[in-house]
Amino acid sequence: MKENQHGLSGSRNAAGQFLLFQAGKAQTEYRPFNVDCTEPLKPLEVPPESQCFTQTAMDRLRKMARFSAMAIRLDTFNPESSADVDFFQKAADVVQSVCDAQKGLYGRIAPGWIGCFFPQKSSKACEKIAKAIRNAVSGQKQHSITIGIAQFPTLDYSGMQILENARKAVFHAEFFGPDSTTSFDAVSLNISGDRYYQEGNIQGAVDEFKKALSMDPDNVNVHNSLGVCYAVLGELDKALEEFRTALDLDAAEMMAAYNCGLVHFLQKSYEKALELFLQAERLGAGVFETAFQLGRTFLELKKIGEAIDYFEKALRRNPDSAAAYRYLAEACILEGRFEDALSAYRTAARKNPNDAEALSALGELLNREDKDPEIAALFCRQSVHISPENGLYWERLGRVCLNQKHYEEARKALRRAVDLGRDCLNDLEKIPNPDPVETPQDMSNS
Q1: What does each C-alpha distance from 324 to 185, 259, 280 come to in angstroms?
Q2: The whole model's pTM is what?
Q3: Stretch 397-419: mean pLDDT, rounded?
């Protein structure tokens, strides 16, 4: 299967963005449910002391050297819809008939889901069984089923985990559209890992990607996805190793080149980052991220003209990027193009009213150019409201207020900046001491 490699996923590391494989829009939100403790359907008899379908099935299959599990999902299911319930019952009747013929076991594992176990069957053999089930329940345009298959043994998965693997294969099968069947493989694990990543369970994603590489060690996409997780966890050396492996396996892999470049950027190896970002730009022309990161890299290397060119190129690809406008403004300041910088900062603030850095920098620049002093103070106040722990923003606010002779506000802002580690004592010393307030005793002595 050819995975969709054009999706973008924002890294949880504020330093940049990573390209990450996207599984595509899932029909059903992925939240693991307990497939081990659901009420089975006949003909599987459940001992009174156990109501667990999978456990009961494992008791039957414990002496089997090989078996397969099948997860069957109605692609649309509303338990309050009589049509959906009728179709589910039809599907269950078909599955029962097939299981009877194949000496299989089956049970309802969740609303709209049926699970099966087939003794001595390989996943290949189950694909033929799945086709027979789909053919038997087809004919209603508004309903379809998707089937996932997983085999035991696979890697070090226990028998209790095989039905969950079959369910992961269902989400893999979504990639091919409704009424599809897929067997569990490294791509299933990659998709599962990506879902864990999107939910914020980075360690769960790492575990899935590692399992995927155990099944397919040359899968470029999985190496890249695992590298993304390591980068998010701050393990940059491990991330770089995965990205380099992906690039070694496929020299035309744009994501791997980009991600290698980004790790080098985070490690302040700017020349190496530049080389890799340029490679990624050649491999994937038209991608916003590569142009944006090239602009940042040229900016770090003090090549301001090139930085401006790439920020402008990035904005042609994505005119709504507040970050690109902010970096463009920074580069324009370094070239002395203050009017262009003001325009870029204003656009950044308009695109993202919560961009504290753009607001703060815009206020400082307006103050420096002696333009709209009240607006300058307003922007600086908003920046510290958004990011109250940023000492630089308090320092800028203090300077703006000092310039406007708002001495008390300036004093408070600069003191806060000093508390947050900023070296602005010289600015504090410029603030005149407040006039002493006369006390009643002072007045009686006069």
Answers
A1: 40, 19, 18
A2: 0.76
A3: 94
Residue 22 has pLDDT above 50, yes or no: no
Say which CATH number the domain at 79 has: 3.30.70.270
Q: In a 3-state reduction of DSSP, which class is residue 213?
A: helix
What integer best gives the mean pLDDT of the chain?
A: 85
Assigned domain for 425 exists: yes
Q: Is residue 250 part of a domain?
A: no
Question: Among residues 133, 138, 89, 213, which one has the least CA distance to residue 227?
Answer: 213
Lowest-pLDDT range of 25-34, 108-117, 213-222: 25-34
> Which of 184, 212, 230 marks a domain boundary?
184
pLDDT score, position 441: 54
163 close to 61: Cβ distance less than 8 angstroms = no
Parent domain of 140: 31-184
In order of 27, 32, 173, the CA distances from 199 in angstroms are: 16, 12, 20
In this structure, is residue 284 part of a structural domain? no
Higher pLDDT, 162 or 285: 162
Q: Which residues contact 54 (CB under 8 A, 6 or more apart)?
A: 35, 36, 115, 160, 163
Using DSSP's 3-state secondary structure scheme, residue 143 falls into coil
